[in-house]
Amino acid sequence: xxxEEALEESKKVLTQKRYDHVERVTETAINLSxxxxxxxxxxxxxxxxxxxxxxxxFSILKxxxxxxxxxxxxxxNYHHEVWHGPVGAKMMERFFMIHDDEVLxxxxxxxxxxxxxxxxxxxxxxxxxxxxxxxxxxxxxxxxIAEKDLDRACxxxxxxxxxxxxxxxxxxxxxxxxAYNEFxxxxxx
Length: 189
Ligand code: DGI
Ligand code: FE
Ligand code: FE
Prior knowledge:
Elements: H1 3-13, H2 16-35, H3 40-49, H4 58-67, H5 84-96, H6 101-108, H7 119-130, H8 139-146, H9 150-167, H10 174-186
Helix pairs in contact: 1-3, 2-3, 2-7, 3-6, 3-7, 5-6, 6-7, 7-9, 8-9, 9-10
Bound molecules: 2'-deoxyguanosine-5'-diphosphate and fe (iii) ion (2 copies).
Keywords: Hydrolase, Iron, Metal-binding, Nucleotide-binding
Domain HD: 18-133
EC number: 3.6.1.41
């Protein structure tokens, strides 16, 4: 599937607003990929499909988690916002016969991050955070760090997401902590 075709598929199932975000994430991810010598095709494909399941009914996402043995059941104990990545990746396997783990993992973990993120995963995760339509206080700093250091930018994004979720008194999916801890241990400031 070409990146343009992937965008078309996302357009079919998303609201215009959400689709516009997906286009911006794809462009941002491709730029980051050039900057950090990523895999143009895999990055573009994952970015174009990362929010495929985002506008679907929560009950549909829930049913996919219940029905597919390899989708972690603990997702159901957390906010429905963390469901669309893992379920979206599963839909890519089923609907479009995408079996490339690099692409699937970038979709699967784009909301939370996880341990041992690949270059493709980091790029899609960060692009989702800093795409030009995002407007929250930390985004300016995140964009600045992204110009210099991919790992530090991911670390910063994770730190801010954790702060944000705590401020909203929401629970946090463990993968977010695993990702945060790993960057924290690896980076020296
Ligand atoms: O799908 P997007 O809106 O483009 O962005 P996203 O997939 O990164 O995040 C969607 C939302 O999920 C965002 O408002 C923050 C929230 N979120 C991310 N991780 C967690 C979370 N919410 C809870 N409750 N727990 C998490 O671990
Ligand atoms: Fe998302
Ligand atoms: Fe997104």
